[in-house]
Amino acid sequence: MLSLPSDIQLLILDHIKLPSHLKALCLTCRHLRALTTPRLYKKITIDLATYDDVPRFFRCMTAGGGAHLKDTRCLTLLDDALPPEADSLQPNRLNFDQPPGPPQDEATNRVISPEMSTKVGLILHVLPRNCLHTFRFQSIKSLDATLMGKIDEYQSQSLQYIHVTFGYSYV
After folding, report:
1. Sign of CA dihedral 34, 35, 40, 43
2. Measured between alpha carbons, how far is 160 from 156 in angstroms, rounded to an integer?
3. Where are the domains of the chain?
4. Measured between alpha carbons, how far is 129 from 132 in angstroms, rounded to an integer?
5. Checking CA distances to 153, which of 16, 52, 90, 124 falls within 20 to 30 Å?
6. What is the pLDDT along the chain (171 residues), one digit of tens a residue?
């Protein structure tokens, strides 16, 4: 691949979608590392419901990954942990006594916790200003006004799409 013209190399890299494959190419040689690193950081997905995703993100940033955030165009934050009352709605478990989902007033009062809000705020703060084209937040809880203000403050000039999914994600 190294003997091919650089424009052909870039076209080939455009077809590699899995981060693990991009990472493997980064580790092969300096030339491919320079070509694949921007693609590796183009889309970042952080699962807020997973214990280690946020600390791993910050460890990566302090280990030098922060220099590559300028290439990030899409940030997806997931918080898909189902609440305990949704256990009866899992596939292969039928419950005819209870309507799907929580009562309407309970669903509308769900806002992310202050701790989660702080984590999301720090993630937004680490990103270079006006680098994102797309921001996605998928959760059973809503973002608070403070976080929406931070998104506006940090990314308003470049942001083209905001996707906020509020509600239950039935598996």
Report:
1. positive
2. 8
3. 1-40, 42-166
4. 8
5. 52
6. 788 998 899 899 989 989 899 999 999 999 999 999 999 999 999 998 888 899 999 999 999 989 999 999 999 999 865 455 444 444 444 444 444 444 444 544 578 888 888 999 999 999 999 999 999 998 888 888 899 999 999 999 999 999 888 765 444
